[in-house]
Structures are given as C-alpha cells and as structure tokens.
Amino acid sequence: MCEMTIEEEFAELCARTEADVRVLGMVLTGSRAREGTATRHSDYDVLLVVDEEQHSLKEGEERRDARMDVSVMSLGEFRTHALPGSGTEWNRYAFTHAVVLKDATDGLIGELVLAKGRLTSSEASRTAAGVLDAFLNGLYRCVKNDRDGDMTAARLDAAESLPHHLTYVFALHERVRPYNKYLAWELRRHPLSRPEWAHGHLLGVLERALSPEPADAVRQLFVELEPHARAAGHGPVLDSWGEDLVLMRGA
C-alpha cells in the first residue's frame, strides 16, 4: 500500500476537523499559508481552536514531525495568545497572512486572527518609541566600538540593533515585524511606504550591517530613518541623545 502524500495527509486532517464539532477553528500558518514561500521541506503548521480544553483531541491530533506541526488550543487561551503580555508575543507574526480554514459560526476565529496579525494604532504608538530608543542605543554602541577599533563588539552591537530598527519601521506602518525568514518576501509582496525601505535597498543595507565593517551601514539606517521618525512625532526620543547624535550620524 502506497504511503499517503503530505497533501493527502493534510486533506484528511481538514476533513476530520471540519466534521468535529469540538473544533471551533482551524488556522494554517507558516510557509504553506504564504504564497511562494513553501519548499519541498515545508510542513503544514496548523492550529486547532477548541471550545474548551479537549485532552482527547490533543492526544489524538497534536503532533510535530517533518510533515505536520499540529497544536490544539482552547478558545480562552487563543484569545490572548501572541498578544502583548501573553508571554507568547514572539509568535505574533505567525498570524499575519494566516489562513482560517474553519471558523466559528460568528466568525470569531477569523476576527481574532486578524487582530493578532496587525498592530492597532495604539499598539504601534506604544511600541515605536521604545524600540526606536533601543535601536539608537545599539547604533551608539556600534559606532563607539568601531571608533575604538573593537570590531567584534561593533559587529555584535550592529546585529543586536537591527531587530529594533525593523520593529520600528514596521510599527510605523502598524504592522508586525516579520520573522527573518519572511522579511524579503514581505518587502516584495507587501512593500513599505518609502524607497529607503524598499526590498532591494533595505536588504542591501542590512547585509552590510552584518559585514565585518558594519558601522557605516547602521549609520545609514539611522540617517534614512531620522526624518521619518521626527515626522512620526519621535523627535524627543532622538533629541534625548544630545550631542551623541553627531557621532551616530557620522560625516
């Protein structure tokens, strides 16, 4: 008897889930949910949302192997999962571009997925100022270490500053920063608003920031970011760095 293909195995899971009244929602995330990102190595990342803690369903459906990564979560847990204060904020981008394959009759699962996948205006505002200051701190340490000839420290500080820079830029657009795996895809398929953050340009500067001589590239990220940060009302965060801005901007 021939082994089922991964597609057949996924179709079987979908059929079981559709017929199971305990399952309120089925959400597909990962590469299989994002057009053009799946490879022959990609599994199916699936989240099943149930009306309450269903241990029998967990035992029967939860798995993690080369073909399927299936998790089961109660509706109460899913309401806060990946949101600020949940402890699972790291998983928020999973729900950006996620596909809801089964929904509750009132559309609740789809609404929750949509809310997780994008920042509200207030969330973006709260996030932006803090991560901007964190980026400036990394930039400052990088250029000081570069000035003093400590290139290992400069490279480490440059690398640590980049996630803050990206989080800030995406927050300006009320968007969740992508996982690194999907950054190029996101910039291509869902471009940001400015040429400084266009796919080819931004990725090129990021690669230089991870090179053996990163200071000039991280400075460039700052110089290109500064006018937009001021336009967004974050001038006080920048100005709190005083005369150090001269060193951070460079020549």
Q: Can you offer a commentary on this structure?
A:
The protein has helices at residues 6-19, 55-61, 75-80, 108-116, 121-147, 151-172, 180-189, 199-209, 215-231, 235-239, 244-249; strands at residues 23-29, 44-50, 63-64, 68-74, 99-102. By secondary structure, the chain is α+β, with helices and mostly antiparallel strands. It has two domains: 6-116, 2-Layer Sandwich (Beta Polymerase, domain 2), CATH 3.30.460; 121-249. Strands 3-4-2-1-5 form a five-stranded mixed β-sheet, with helices on both faces. Helix 5 (121-147) runs antiparallel to helix 6. The longest helix is centred in the middle third of the chain and has 27 residues, at 121-147. It is elongated and about 65 Å long.
Structure characteristics:
251 residues; alpha+beta; Beta Polymerase, domain 2; 5-stranded mixed β-sheet; 11 helices; 5 strands; 11% strand
Give the helix/strand layout:
Layout: H1 6-19, E1 23-29, E2 44-50, H2 55-61, E3 63-64, E4 68-74, H3 75-80, E5 99-102, H4 108-116, H5 121-147, H6 151-172, H7 180-189, H8 199-209, H9 215-231, H10 235-239, H11 244-249
Parallel strand pairs: 2-4
Antiparallel strand pairs: 1-2, 1-5, 3-4
- Compressed to H and E, one letter per element, the order equals HEEHEEHEHHHHHHHH
What's the helix count?
Answer: 11
Shape: elongated
User: End-to-end distance, in Å?
Assistant: 70 Å
Fraction of helical residues? 40-55%
Low-confidence stretches: none
Strand runs, count? 5
| Main beta sheet strand tally, sense and closure | 5 strands, mixed
Placed side by side, the strands forming the largest sheet appear as 3-4-2-1-5
Output the structural class: alpha+beta
Strand content: 5-15%
Rg measurement, Å: 22 Å
Domain module count? 2
Overall mean pLDDT stands at 94
